[in-house]
Amino acid sequence: MTDKISAFLVKDGYKEKDFELMQQHVLVSRTSIEHKLKPKLYWLRDLGMSKSQIAQAVAVFPPILGLSIEQNLKPTVQCLLDSGLSGAEVARAVAVFPQIFGYSIEKNLKPKYNVLSSSFGSNATAERFRILKQRNEQTKLASIMPLTEAKRCGT
């Protein structure tokens, strides 16, 4: 990670362990502070994620820094809100599984939501997430989301 990026993260209040997580990835070191890093980090913070959660999300899914806020991040968050999750639940889902931002809404997220809704009733996605949350098993989302042929599960 460049000294400029490290200085920015320290100045912005990130702990050393947080930027150590992020510095493991070449993509972070090649990221423009003003045009990519700063806007994404602030946007994720406004979403409700802690700095520690943001650092972990970037470490797990570095491409998040290259995604467009308007074309990728906001529409995905809106899709999750439309499925019945609260803002806090969306922030937690993103913290646990930041790869969700890399999924197509039309080809991946909506079909999965439709399968859950038709199989378990409306608002199934939010209900399943709440059940996982109650059981402290949000990491199971990571095994659910990569399913690429969700429609086959419902037949």
TrEMBL record:
Pfam families tied to this protein: mTERF
Keyword Coiled coil attached: no
Keyword annotations of the record: Transit peptide
Domain of life of the organism encoding this protein: Eukaryota
Signal peptide: none
Family per similarity comment: Belongs to the mTERF family.
Protein name per UniProt: Chloroplastic (Mitochondrial transcription termination factor 5) (mTERF5) (Protein MTERF DEFECTIVE IN ARABIDOPSIS 1)
